[in-house]
From TrEMBL:
Membrane topology: Multi-pass membrane protein
Location in the cell: Cell membrane
Keyword Cytoplasm attributed: no
Chief location bin: membrane
Protein name (record): LysE family transporter
Domain of life per record: Bacteria
TM helices/strands, residue ranges: 6-28, 40-65, 71-88, 116-137, 149-169, 181-201
PANTHER family membership: AMINO ACID EFFLUX PERMEASE RHTB FAMILY, ARGININE EXPORTER PROTEIN ARGO
Amino acid sequence: MPLNLWLSLVALCAMGAMSPGPSLAMVLRHTLGGGRSAGVAAGISHALGVGLYAALTAWGLGALIVHYPGMFQAIMILGAAYLAWLGVKALRAGRGGALEAQAVTTSRSMAIRDGFMVALANPKLILFFVALLSQLITPEMSEMGKWLVVVTAMGIDGAWYVLVAMALSHSRVLPWLQARAVWINRLTGIVLLALALRVVWGV
């Protein structure tokens, strides 16, 4: 892959990872409930989900969606349902008082599950890879070039969310976040539910 093309890929992946959305809300929530290890686990598993979509795109996801649009709609609806479920969980966690909200904990296994599933359920990722990466990946691209696309997308996403989890779990930041756990849970729930509704509305 030419260097200028790879740098374009890096820029696109960085912009995609850094844009606010359900992925950031998910990493924030797990960092708040489980500390640094849970937040980092969520970030790494999210990157694995991103890598899966990048691999599917590199090996023909775009062509498959063109030929089977019904399958794409089914993926979108299932993704919206999962985001809505996470949103309801976040809102319910935020109904109690501040002490109760702080007691809402998460485990590393839950963080890994949610990180991976939020990546798969996020329709923005599907559209991002199909619309943008499919323009960079040509039929003539070598297998090594395709794997470079996958590793780049996965590495940038993982590095960003691990950095976010590390920053949020800082000894001075985490207590401040925990003191505002109720509002963070409510805001997270609203973001996830709003995205789920937007997906359903657009299907």
